[in-house]
Amino acid sequence: NLQSIAFSLLLLLLADVNSKEMQHGNQTSVSHFILVGLHHPPQLGVLLFLTFLVIYALTVSGNGLIILTVLADTQLHRPMYWFLCHLSLLDMTISSAIVPKMLAGFLLDSRIISFGGCVIQLFSFHFLGCTECFLYTLMAYDRFLAICKPLHYATIMTRSVCNYLAIGTWLGGTLHSLFQTSFIFRLPFCGPNRVDYFFCDIPAMLRLACADTTVNELITFVDIGFLALTCFVLILTSYGYIVAAILRIRSADGRRNAFSTCAAHLTVVIVYYVPCTFIYLRPGSQEPLDGVVAVFYTVITPLLNPIIYTLRNKEMKAALWRLGGRKVVKPH
């Protein structure tokens, strides 16, 4: 069970962090952090709470509906939609790791998060975010096989292969997050404890450390930069072959359907990678725009994914109609 493995590793990480705190003695005196949150006039607190609450509700319901539709409709029991289920689950959990605490800050002015809670939040966010990065690459590879090697697709992307590949993305995300989280929280935190951000993330936590963070910034840049660049290059390479193959399709309808499916995935990839690159390849940045960009990929992107995939995918729209008990009218 991947969740139990990740939870066990997280417990080991917390135990290691606690032991480091004891070794530092009085140097690490911070027992909790205060999340400053998004800078806004006090009178807008209720409005922002309602706005983000609606977005969060739509995110959970939209991604949950995709998972339910794929599981209920046997016509969607194919690798592409299996991976889409994983993407929807990741979007739901990423949003759930960040938004509820943000909502509490807007309405209840509850901005305190414990040291352990901060560790868990940072680990969870990077575990889920890195897994999603690997999953986008896997989805591009799946489309490459389906379009460029259709005769071999069924023999290559078997159910067991899909399961192993999906498990690999989750394990890769776990290891990456353990690496990053352990390096961050090995640093001493002796005050101040005000996190100038709306959740515990690497750039914000590095600014609070009572030690030189040059090595950590370099590790963050190299590690996340290498992973993001490698995945992005693989995705672009896959789509380079895909576009070449689509242009060779003689049927106009065939080209249109192939482009529609791939355009949805490529749109999601761009929406995901551009904000992440802006934040994590500049770990020492303190620009006010960082918070706005972070809201985009933690709150808005998980909402956009189900919209993009359902509106641009005829099979998903037809399956949703069938799930609602209505007949799908096919054009003559």
TrEMBL record:
Transmembrane parts of this sequence: 43-68, 80-100, 112-141, 161-179, 224-247, 259-280, 292-311
Residue ranges constituting the G-protein coupled receptors family 1 profile domain according to the UniProt record: 62-309
Compartments where located: Cell membrane
Primary location recorded for the protein, binned into one broad class: membrane
Residue ranges that the Swiss-Prot or TrEMBL entry lists as coiled coil: none
UniProt topology in membrane: Multi-pass membrane protein
Entry keyword annotation includes Transferase: no
SUPFAM superfamilies named in the record: Family A G protein-coupled receptor-like (SSF81321)
Keyword set, alphabetical order: Cell membrane, G-protein coupled receptor, Membrane, Olfaction, Receptor, Sensory transduction, Signal, Transducer, Transmembrane, Transmembrane helix
Signal sequence interval, chain numbering: 1-19
Pfam families linked: 7tm_4 (PF13853)
GO molecular function: G protein-coupled receptor activity; olfactory receptor activity
GO cellular component: plasma membrane
Protein family (similarity comment): Belongs to the G-protein coupled receptor 1 family.
Primary role: Putative odorant or sperm cell receptor.
Protein name: Olfactory receptor family 10 subfamily G member 6
Organism this protein belongs to: Moschus moschiferus
